Each structure stands twice: as C-alpha cells, then as structure tokens.
Amino acid sequence: QDHDLETMYLDSFLKLACLDGEDISQTYMALKEMGEKHHVNFVISISMDADELPDCVKGDVIISL
C-alpha cells in the first residue's frame, strides 16, 4: 500500500462538487473526518466570501481574498 499521501489540494471545490449556492457544512465535516481518519490534509479552494462561510469552516481558513 502507498502511505505517503499527506495533502490533497482540491481547486474550484464548490463547482466540482456541485455545491455552488449550497450549505457546505456536511461535506466539509465529512472531508475533515476522512482526513483525520486517514491522516491526510485537505486544502480546498472555495469561492465564497468569508462572512458567508459556515462557522465550522471559518476556523480552518488559511487565506481569504
């Protein structure tokens, strides 16, 4: 087995996951739990204003443009 995957970068996440205009809380928490379980960091690009983000996401924001 390959155990060297540490970080996954997901660009244009809302578009790719068909979540534009949807609540992303459940999907975000599922990714977070999956990452913790498998020791993988997810870095996701979300095109959304910071004040529109669910509270569960705000603490993990790296940069907001």
Automatic annotation (TrEMBL):
Q: Which domain of life is it from?
A: Bacteria
Supply the name of the protein: Twitching motility protein PilT
